[in-house]
Amino acid sequence: MKVNLLDVIDAIDTVSEDETYFYSIQDEEIVYALDDGEDDEFFIPLPTKEVNDYQNMVNFTETIEDDKKRDWFENAIHGKGAFRRFRATLERFGMETEWYDYLEASHRELAIEWCEQHGIVYDTSVRHEEVDDDWDEEDVVVEKEPIKQVQIPLRFVHIDEDNYMSALSLCDTYLQELDQYAGISSSSDYDRAQNYLEEALEEKEIYVLSDHGRFIAMAICRMNGCVTTITDLCVVKDKRRSGVARKLISEIQKQEVQPLQFEVPTNNPTMHAFLQAIGYAKIIHTTYTK
């Protein structure tokens, strides 16, 4: 599944309490509403209740560093007529641009989180405006420019019960590779991957890196006392040797204050070589099983 992120943002910007937009899984596009008789399983609702204009005003006010201005905004957003007073205060201090920039960033973040939650890869290309069909071609000068891409850095995402299904493909590939290291022949099995992630969620933490909605790296961590142990670490094949695993580990170190260690099967030479290359070459102990 894929979508242009601007389409999602536009829908969020224009939605009202009485309106609902959906993502059509079959057509891979945003639609206004379901037709009668359509099956809901083929449509994903876009964020609606999460768009809280009042909360955005509160959050925006908290970002204002100037004490005097912040006091004005805090007084404006309390009580009846808060929206009117808030806009009057924006005009008083000439901060309309800052507000709209903040609102745009807030809706973009909401759109990205929605895509990541539902496993939808998003495109950040800037669309060109279409020419009105009533215009004569001779009167319109069309300048062909390359499609611009809005660069969004890799995002560090915590996996929970709401978005773990988006990691099925990555987990499925990882489990197949584990079988290969063990000399076992296996094929894609999403049910197995789902069970693996669900069991991990019961007692472990799962983190991924998202590249425009596509989960490209995953780490499963066990918290045990004063130590965080990464029991599973994987990167999609086309992103290996590009620093992705290092970045994921770095983000986990920022998230978890306790020391970090790795639990790696002896039959996984690739992971052993990688960890030794980034300084985790010390072997603490060996576990024997029968």
Walk me through the structure.
The protein has 290 residues and is of the alpha+beta class. It has two domains: 1-151, no CATH class; 155-277, Gcn5-related N-acetyltransferase (GNAT) (Aminopeptidase). It has helices at 5-14, 53-63, 67-76, 82-93, 96-118, 168-181, 190-203, 244-255, 269-277; strands at 2-4, 22-24, 29-31, 43-45, 121-123, 155-159, 205-211, 214-224, 227-235, 260-262. The strands form three sheets. The protein has a five-stranded mixed beta sheet, with helices on both faces. Helix 1 (5-14) packs across helix 5 (96-118), helix 3 runs antiparallel to helix 4 and helix 6 crosses helix 7 (190-203). The two termini are 45 Å apart.
Quick tags:
290 residues; alpha+beta; Aminopeptidase; 5-stranded mixed β-sheet; 3-stranded antiparallel β-sheet; 9 helices; 40% helix
The residue ranges in which pLDDT falls below 50 over 5 or more consecutive positions are none
Side by side, the strands of the main sheet go 6-7-8-9-10
What letter string, H or E per element, gives the SSE order?
Answer: EHEEEHHHHEEHHEEEHEH
> How many DSSP helices?
9
Percent helix: 25-40%
> What form results from the Cα inertia axes?
globular
Briefly note the structural class of the backbone.
Answer: alpha+beta
The total number of structural domains is: 2
Please report the distance between the alpha carbons of the first and last residues: 45 Å
The averaged pLDDT comes out at: 85
Q: In angstroms, what is the radius of gyration?
A: 24 Å
Task: Determine the oligomeric state from the structure.
Answer: single chain
- Portion of residues in beta strands equals 15-25%
User: Biggest sheet: strands, sense, closure?
Assistant: 5 strands, mixed
How many DSSP E strands? 10
